[in-house]
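User: Here's a chain of 208 residues. Predict its fold as tokens.
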Amino acid sequence: MTLRTATPEDLDAIMALERASFPTDAWSDAMMREELRSPHGRYLVLEEAGRLIGYGGIRAVHGGTDADIQTIALAESARGRGRGRGLLRSLLTEAGDRGAREVFLEVRADNPVAQALYVSEGFAEIARRPNYYQPDGVDAIVMRLDLRGWLAARAEPNPAAEPNPAAEPNPAAEPNPAAEQNPAAEPNPGAESNPATEPAASEAGACT
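Assistant: Prediction complete.
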């Protein structure tokens, strides 16, 4: 599995996954193209066996204090193996590198799997936007993460993770990857997709 920065050449593959993940509120090709070109964000793609199986993007202006998860999506066949979590963590690390202190996102109220992932990483609900996702009329849950706290927690040594010299390596055990995604009509910086500015995102939700 390969995680790398998305390029304009990935647009067709990204949009194929976007439409499969968010059939009723997928972004347009033009919206996604502008997101990939924007200097204020970064998009990552996951590839396996030469096939794009996931992508995610963050809006984080260099030197700004806030960042927004614009979208995260994972192919259905690739979900349930930790790839969404890995992708989310990579985006959060990028936000920290750009100086952000808080990260926001929006997730569909009818997507409990995505909500559970975000909560497990430290996001907390701060508001709701009624009927945000159209044409489905689904509410958006706005969530916030204290990124400084998240980064500090990950920097602390974990005694449980220390190597045990007495334990022999287990060749059968291999790390398990993850997945996630986002939904809507216009990407925007405040929370996965901020309807007040730019195209709203596809939610931060098709994943596990």
